[in-house]
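Input:
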Amino acid sequence: MQIVAGQEPPFGVRLTRRLARRTMTELNLRSGRSTETAAAPLKAAPARGSASAAATRAASGSDTAGEAIAGLRPTLIGLDRTELADRVRALDVPEKQVRMRVAQLWQAIYGRGARDFDAITTLSKGFRTALADHYSLARPQLTTAQVSSDGTRKWLLGLDAETAGVHGPEIETVYIPEESRGTLCVSSQVGCTLTCSFCHTGTQKLVRNLTAGEIVGQLMIARDELGEWPSPSDGRLITNMVLMGMGEPLYNFDNVAKALDIVADGEGLSLSKRRITLSTSGVVPLIERVGAEIGCMLAISLHAVRDEVRDELVPLNKKYPIAELMEACRTFPGLSNARRITFEYVMLKGVNDSLADAKELVRLLKGIPAKINLIPFNPWPGSPYDCSDWDQIEAFAEVVNRAGYASPVRTPRGRDIMAACGQLKSASQKMKASERRRLAQSSDTAAAETMA
Ligand code: SF4
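Output:
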């Protein structure tokens, strides 16, 4: 494509240029390596100070990361306006000023991405000092950044541990730039209780649910890394967000719902819920609440059209079989042609990719405004499946297309850094309580780091 001098290049070109600039800077500064795919360890986050008794009391009952550990100042990331007001009141701010202070903090934290209170110059010096004495603006800690040869980025993020002196678990977040949009794929749990047989995350046991702050923090770190503060009103690099990373979002419903309310708030991160898609493997009793309470777009990890096959691929199907799942989709609140449900279908050679399967898929979807994402299988070490042949994927798509459903074949992205769909897995393992105690008591930090 030729760009004429003085003319604004198209979004995809601007995006590629911005990423290229950041990629080069990142590679030069962090690792000195010149290859396009690089894992770059980053410097450690600044140490956090002590919590006062007052702030600790004010923070109690919240789910923000770090609060369970004595000696850490609790972060304000992940608090909603009501909780933020409680924290402000705890610092003896007069009641008539609380609303204004909350609005200023909200704008600074979620709208401009402030990383420390001193940078929030709309607040008085005294109030900034009080805030810094009691709270922090800590996000999950970026430990490794990788860039795929296709521009996809994967970030490994360290979370706070539940016990002092122990390394916290890790999650992965992926950014996928495309010509007309940029999608951030975020995680909702560390590991997963469901053991979908085609999914790498499914081989990692659940360690814990993410807090609302850790879910929101993934978007904030992505914006840090892409240089996207303050929240731009147009020309954004991150235009969409999908909860398709590690974990089953509906098994962490409350934190996910709270996080998405914060993300969608128009005075902060301001990402519309029409641009946020929650993907579930089919937790039928909670699907209605996604439409009624969260109001974001819905995706279903379907992957098979017969119960005996889906029982194998998505074992949750044994509890909520296909017929129940389809009924929940048919009655999904707000379902319309403008708010279609996306059905994800991974293409597995000889397992679920026959033309009879395609016809059955069309039959199942009758009456549901839907789009079908066909996903060529992305292999991972030890995976038991092969990807369908390309001809077969095209023939499958043709059947679905002819029935009137959009059925794009999703181009695999970030395979070279294990960032593609179904490939995410962190090294975090759930430790026994005795192991945690032993590690917490250990003064040998190096040994603790190795075991975590
Ligand atoms: S596909 Fe989703 S629900 Fe299934 S194991 Fe993977 S992360 Fe869990």
